[in-house]
C-alpha cells in the first residue's frame, strides 16, 4: 500500500514511529497533484517549495525530540475562503484576486499550531455561492470519478482534492450543504459541526448565521482527528460556543440500540431511484448492526429551500456590500471611468441635455458600480439582487421576517424528532453527480440540489455525509446523518459504525 492510500490517522502513527518522514509523505502528494490536477482542477494554488520546507522543519524537530502536534507532517488542503497571513485569499473571485490576508483565520492558526503542512488552496464557487464549483472566476473543477461531472460545491475543490488523493484531509465551508454535497458527489466523508463549534474568525463571510467551517476526509476517524484540532471556543468569534469538545467515548465504540429516524418527506417525488436504493440499503446495514429504524416527520422541510434562498441572499447582500473598490479588492480602471463620464457629459451637453448631464453618476458612485459589476460573477450578482430586494422597504416583513419565522418552525420539527431518535438518516442529494454545464443555466434546478442539506444550516445542527453506494455508471451516492445540537460524538460514532461494516469509503476513482 502506497503512502497516499493510508488514512491520515495511519500516516500520523507511522510518522510518530519514524517509519516514514514528512518530506516523503508530502512529496508523494505533490507528485500526484503535479500528475493529475491538470485534469481535475482541485487547486487554485499550491506551493511545492513552501510545503517541502514545512515538512523538512517538522522532520528536523521530530528528530530533535520535540513534542509535536497531532497533525505533525500531515498535508491539509484549505478552501480558498479562509484568511492566511501573507497568502492570497481570493474566494475564487476577481474581486479578491490580488487580496493577501494580513492575519490568520483561527482555523488556519490551529492547523499551524498542530504542525499540519498546508499544501494548497482549493477551488470553490465564487464567495461560496453555488453547488457545482462552476461559478469560480478562475477555473472549473471536475469530479475525479468522472471528469465530465461536477464535484459539487461550493467546496468542490476541497472534496475533489481528497477524492483524487491530492491530500488526506481538507478544510471546507458549509452554508447550505457546501461540505456535505461535494463529499457525497466525490465519495468521501464531509462533516458540518454544530453552529459555533468551529470559529468563523477569518472566514470570508457569505451568510453569517449559516456559514460553518468543517473537515473533509476519507474516513470518519480522520474527520474526528481534524475536527478535534479546529474546533473549540474562540473569543474572537462572538458566535463561538464555550463548550468542551472532548469525546467521552472513542468513536470506534458502537452505539448500543441506536435509534435512526427515517423521514417520510425525504422519500417523496424528485428522489432518484438509485439514490433511494443505496440509502435504503444503508438503513438495512444499520439494522443488521442492531440499530432500530423509527419513522419521523419533518413537515416544514418542504419550505427549507425557499426559506434558505431568502435568508442566505439577504445576509450575502449585507456582507458583500463591503466590496466597493475603495478599501481593498478589485477597482475598475479610474482613468477609463473618468474618460467615459467626461465623454457622456460632453455628448449630453452638446445635445442640449444639460439637466441629464448633471444627473449622471458622480465619479465615486460610478466607480462603485463599475467595480462591483466587473468583479462579481453572475451567481453572486443574482444573490445580491435577491437579498437586496427582500430587505428593501415594503418587502422585509413579507420575505425576510417570514423566512425567519419558518426557520423557527423547521427547528421545532427537528427538536420534536430528536426527542424520539438519536440520529436522522437520509440522502445527501436527490441525484448522483450531474454533468458539468447541465444545470448552470437553470438556477432553480441547481438550488434544488440543496433539498436535503439546507435544513441543517437553518437549524444549526451537526450533519455528516458518508459514501453509501454508487450509481449504475459508477458515480458516488451519499448518506446523510444528522444529530441534535452538540451531539457530534453521537454523529461520528454512528458514522464510524456504518463504515466499520462497509467499504464504500475505501474505494478510489480510476484517475
Automatic annotation (TrEMBL):
Keyword Nucleotide-binding found: yes
Catalytically driven reaction(s): L-glutamyl-tRNA(Gln) + L-glutamine + ATP + H2O = L-glutaminyl-tRNA(Gln) + L-glutamate + ADP + phosphate + H(+)
Tree of life domain: Bacteria
Keywords attached to this entry: ATP-binding, Ligase, Nucleotide-binding, Protein biosynthesis
PROSITE patterns, per database record: AMIDASES
GO molecular function: ATP binding; glutaminyl-tRNA synthase (glutamine-hydrolyzing) activity
Cross-referenced Pfam families: Amidase
Residues annotated as domain Amidase: 24-492
Biological-process GO terms, alphabetical: translation
UniProt EC number: 6.3.5.7
Catalytic site positions: 79 (charge relay system), 154 (charge relay system), 178 (acyl-ester intermediate)
Gene Ontology annotations for the cellular component aspect, listed alphabetically: glutamyl-tRNA(Gln) amidotransferase complex
PANTHER family per UniProt: GLUTAMYL-TRNA(GLN) AMIDOTRANSFERASE SUBUNIT A, TRANSAMIDASE
Function summary: Allows the formation of correctly charged Gln-tRNA(Gln) through the transamidation of misacylated Glu-tRNA(Gln) in organisms which lack glutaminyl-tRNA synthetase. The reaction takes place in the presence of glutamine and ATP through an activated gamma-phospho-Glu-tRNA(Gln).
SUBUNIT field: Heterotrimer of A, B and C subunits.
Family of this protein: Belongs to the amidase family. GatA subfamily.
Protein name (record): Glutamyl-tRNA(Gln) amidotransferase subunit A
Record organism: Aeoliella straminimaris
Gene field: gatA
Amino acid at each position: 500500500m502506497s503512502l497516499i492510500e493510508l488514512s491520515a490517522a495511519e500516516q500520523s502513527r507511522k510518522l510518530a514511529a519514524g517509519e516514514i518522514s514528512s518530506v516523503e509523505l508530502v512529496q508523494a502528494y505533490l507528485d500526484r497533484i503535479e500528475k493529475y490536477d491538470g485534469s481535475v482542477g482541485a487547486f487554485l494554488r499550491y506551493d511545492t517549495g513552501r510545503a517541502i520546507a514545512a515538512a523538512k522543519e517538522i522532520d528536523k524537530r521530530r528528530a530533535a525530540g520535540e513534542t509535536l502536534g497531532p497533525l505533525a507532517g500531515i498535508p491539509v488542503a484549505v478552501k480558498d475562503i479562509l484568511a492566511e497571513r501573507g497568502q492570497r485569499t481570493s474566494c475564487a473571485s476577481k474581486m479578491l484576486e490580488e487580496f493577501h490576508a494580513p492575519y490568520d483565520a483561527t482555523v488556519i492558526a490551529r492547523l499551524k499550531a498542530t504542525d499540519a503542512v498546508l499544501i494548497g488552496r482549493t477551488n470553490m464557487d465564487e464567495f461560496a455561492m453555488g453547488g457545482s464549483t462552476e461559478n469560480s472566476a478562475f477555473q472549473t473543477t471536475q469530479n475525479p470519478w468522472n471528469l465530465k461531472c461536477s464535484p459539487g460545491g461550493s467546496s468542490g475543490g476541497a472534496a475533489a482534492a481528497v477524492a483524487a488523493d491530492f491530500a488526506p484531509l481538507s478544510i471546507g465551508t458549509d452554508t447550505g450543504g457546501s461540505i456535505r454535497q461535494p463529499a457525497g458527489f466525490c465519495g468521501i466523508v464531509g462533516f458540518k459541526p454544530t453552529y459555533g463549534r468551529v470559529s468563523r474568525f477569518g472566514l470570508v463571510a457569505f451568510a453569517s448565521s449559516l456559514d460553518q467551517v468543517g473537515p473533509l476526509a476519507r474516513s470518519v476517524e480522520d474527520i474526528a482527528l481534524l475536527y478535534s484540532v479546529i474546533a473549540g471556543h474562540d473569543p474572537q468569534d462572538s458566535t463561538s460556543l464555550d463548550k468542551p469538545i472532548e469525546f467521552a467515548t472513542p468513536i470506534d465504540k458502537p452505539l448500543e440500540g441506536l435509534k435512526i429516524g427515517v423521514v417520510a418527506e425525504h422519500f417523496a417525488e424528485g428522489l432518484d431511484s438509485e439514490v433511494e436504493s443505496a440509502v435504503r440499503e444503508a438503513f438495512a446495514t444499520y439494522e443488521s448492526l442492531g440499530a432500530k429504524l423509527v419513522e419521523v416527520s419533518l413537515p416544514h422541510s418542504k419550505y427549507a429551500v425557499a426559506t434558505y434562498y431568502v435568508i442566505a441572499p439577504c445576509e450575502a447582500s449585507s456582507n458583500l456590500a463591503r466590496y466597493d473598490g475603495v478599501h481593498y479588492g478589485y477597482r475598475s480602471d479610474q482613468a477609463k471611468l473618468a474618460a467615459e463620464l467626461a465623454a457622456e457629459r460632453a455628448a449630453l451637453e452638446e445635445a442640449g441635455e444639460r439637466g441629464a448631464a448633471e444627473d449622471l453618476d458622480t465619479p465615486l458612485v460610478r466607480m462603485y458600480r463599475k467595480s462591483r459589476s466587473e468583479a462579481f460573477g453572475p451567481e453572486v450578482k443574482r444573490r445580491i439582487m435577491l437579498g437586496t430586494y427582500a430587505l428593501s422597504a415594503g418587502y422585509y416583513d413579507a420575505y425576510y421576517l417570514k423566512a425567519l419565522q419558518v426557520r423557527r418552525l423547521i427547528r421545532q420539527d427537528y427538536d420534536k424528532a430528536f426527542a424520539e431518535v438519536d440520529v436522522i438518516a437520509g440522502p445527501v442529494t436527490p441525484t448522483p453527480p450531474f454533468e458539468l454545464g447541465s444545470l448552470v443555466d437553470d438556477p432553480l434546478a441547481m438550488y434544488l440540489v440543496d433539498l436535503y442539506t439546507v435544513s441543517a444550516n437553518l437549524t444549526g445542527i451537526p450533519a455528516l455525509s458518508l459514501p453509501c453506494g454508487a450509481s449504475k455508471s459508477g458515480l458516488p451516492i451519499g448518506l446523510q446523518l444528522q444529530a441534535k445540537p452538540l451531539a457530534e460524538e453521537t454523529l461520528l460514532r454512528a458514522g464510524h459504525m456504518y463504515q466499520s461494516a462497509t467499504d464504500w469509503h475505501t474505494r478510489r476513482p480510476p484517475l
